[in-house]
């Protein structure tokens, strides 16, 4: 093949590759992303939090200390993950908001459970759920309202014995 044609073809393919790379590897606009660059959706983590918050409520109602403490830990871990994975979501500062709004509601829960004081734990639990809902209002998701459980829909016993 003629060297000039070869050079021309190479240059063309280089331009095409740069163009392709630019269009397919466009940096994700994190501030407005529905999902993280890794393709994860915040709602998935929220549904984990919802299930654990639900089971935490049932554990407190059943005065089951080890189970309730387990769910407080699980919730803490889920929100640690959320704070790491979702600094921003749909333009909202998810990590900072959850640190400011939800984290302060946790110590009252942990302390009352450690003391086996279920009456105080029930009040702390309501405040914890209120913090979830306050954040939903702050991020324009006020239509997501979590409430204390009224029955056990799980194939799981919350009884201590
Ligand atoms: C940082 C503020 C913030 C906090 C704190 C927060 N949420 Fe959310 N939550 C959101 C956002 C934002 C969405 C919408 C996510 C999406 O669009 O993918 C959401 C969605 C949800 C959903 C809908 C997803 C589904 O599976 O139905 C539930 C349920 C939920 N949150 C439960 C909770 C619970 C329970 C807590 C507290 C333990 C909580 N959230 C705390 C911001 C928050």
Can you walk through the features of this model?
The chain is mainly α and 161 residues long. It has a domain at 32-138: Up-down Bundle (Four Helix Bundle (Hemerythrin (Met), subunit A)). 63% of the residues lie in helices and 0% in strands. It contains six helices and no strands. It has helices at 3-24, 42-61, 65-85, 94-101, 106-114, 118-138. α2 (42-61) runs antiparallel to α6 (118-138). The protein is elongated, with a radius of gyration of 24 Å. It binds heme C.
Q: Nearest-angstrom radius of gyration?
A: 24 Å
CATH-defined fold name of the domain at 32-138? Four Helix Bundle (Hemerythrin (Met), subunit A)
Give the terminus-to-terminus CA distance. 84 Å
Which segments are poorly predicted (pLDDT under 50) over 5 or more consecutive residues? 17-33
Tell me the number of strands: 0
DSSP strand content: under 5%
Largest sheet: none
> What are the secondary-structure elements, in order, as H or E?
HHHHHH
- SS-derived structural category: mainly alpha
Rough outline:
elongated
Query: What is the mean predicted local confidence, pLDDT?
Result: 86
What layout of secondary structure does this protein have?
Elements: H1 3-24, H2 42-61, H3 65-85, H4 94-101, H5 106-114, H6 118-138
Helix pairs in contact: 2-3, 2-6, 3-4, 3-5, 5-6
The protein binds heme C.
Short overview:
Helices cover 63% and strands 0% of the residues.
């Amino acid at each position: 093949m003629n060297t000039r044609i070869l050079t021309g073809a190479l240059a063309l393919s280089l331009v095409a590759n740069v163009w392709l790379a630019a269009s397919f590897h466009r940096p994700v606009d994190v501030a407005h992303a529905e999902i993280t660059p890794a393709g994860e959706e915040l709602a998935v983590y929220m549904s984990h939090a919802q299930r654990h918050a639900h089971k935490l409520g049932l554990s407190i109602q059943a005065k089951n200390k080890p189970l309730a403490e387990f769910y407080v830990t699980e919730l803490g871990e889920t929100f640690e993950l959320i704070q790491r994975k979702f600094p921003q979501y749909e333009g909202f500062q998810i990590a900072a908001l959850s640190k400011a709004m939800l984290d302060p509601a946790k110590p009252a829960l942990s302390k009352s459970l450690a003391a086996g004081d279920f009456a105080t734990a029930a009040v702390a639990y309501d405040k914890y759920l209120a913090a979830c809902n306050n954040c939903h209002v702050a991020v324009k998701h006020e239509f997501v309202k979590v409430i204390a459980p009224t029955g056990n829909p799980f194939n799981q016993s919350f009884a201590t014995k």
